[in-house]
Amino acid sequence: DTGVSQDPRHKITKRGQNVTFRCDPISEHNRLYWYRQTLGQGPEFLTYFQNEAQLEKSRLLSDRFSAERPKGSFSTLEIQRTEQGDSAMYLCASSLAGGPYFGPGTRLLVL
Amino acid sequence: QKEVEQNSGPLSVPEGAIASLNCTYSDRVSQSFFWYRQYSGKSPELIMSIYSNGDKEDGRFTAQLNKASQYVSLLIRDSQPSDSATYLCAVNMGTNTGNQFYFGTGTSLTVIP
To answer: Is A29 exposed, middle or buried (0-12, 13-18, 19+ CB in 10 A)?
Structure first.
C-alpha cells in the first residue's frame, strides 16, 4: 500500500496528557497537511508543510499544538495538555500538486 | 461568511437517477476546486478536480465550474447504492492563503435501491 499512513489509528487519553501522532505521506509528495474533523463538519485546516518547512499554521490553532516534519519525510503532530474539546479525527494528507490525498486518520478521544 | 458552502442535505435519489451536488465559495481569486467522497467512519477520498470554467467528465462523474458565479457542482449519473456517502467540496483560495484548502461541511447523499 503506497498511500498515506497514520499511526495510531485510535487514541484514548485523559485530559491533561500529551499525545503525538505520526503521518507518513506518499513517498514522492513534498506537500503535507494536517486537518481536524469533527462529526458533521468538513475537515478544518491545521497546518501545512512544503518539504521540511512549515509554511502555514491555522490562526485557530492554540499553542498546545505543534507539528514537525524533519527531513521533509514523515510528520508528527503533538497536542500538549489535551482538553475534551480536542476529541476529533486528525487527518493527514499529502500532495505533489493539486488536491491532497488523505490518510485513514487518527481518532482521538479525550476523557 | 463561510468560505465554502454546501447544502448539507440529506439528498436522496433513486438508483439509476442523476444526483446533483452544489457548492458555492466566497473568494473570487480561487484557482482550483475539488470533490471528495467520504464514507461514514472513513477519511475523505479525492474523486474529482477542476481548474477551468466548464465541465469535466470522469466516468459517471461530471464536475462543473462557473467562476463568475463562484459555483461548482458535481453530477453523478446512473447513481448506485455504493455512491451513498457524504460529498465534500474543497477550494484552494488564492495566493494570499498559500496552499490552504477550505472544505465545506459536506452533502449527505443516499441512493435508494
So the answer is: middle
Which residues, listed in sequence order, are joined to residue B14 by a DSSP beta bridge? B112
Q: Which helix (H) or strand (E) holds A19?
A: strand A19-24
In this prediction, residue A100 carries a pLDDT of: 94
Q: In A, which residues are within 8 Å of B90 by CB distance?
A: 42, 99
Q: Which of A94, A86, A96 is nearest to A20 (CA)?
A: A86
C-alpha to C-alpha distance for B93 and B101, rounded to whole angstroms: 7
**Are residues A19 and A13 in contact, defined by beta-carbon separation less than 8 angstroms?**
yes
User: Cβ(B85)–Cβ(B13) under 8 Å?
Assistant: no
* Minimum distance, in Å, between the CA of residue B110 and any CA atom of chain A: 16
| Residue A105 falls in which region: left (phi positive, over 0), alpha (psi -120 to 50) or beta | left
For residue B85, which of B102, B65, B66, B61 has the smallest C-alpha distance?
Answer: B61
Q: How many CA atoms lie within 13 A of A65 on its CB side?
A: 17
> In which band, very low, low, confident or very high, does the pLDDT at B1 lie, cut at 50, 70 and 90?
low
Closest-CA distance, B28 to chain A, in angstroms, reads 19
Nearest CB partner across the interface for B43, out of A41, A45, A105: A105
Q: Over chain B, what is the mean pLDDT?
A: 91
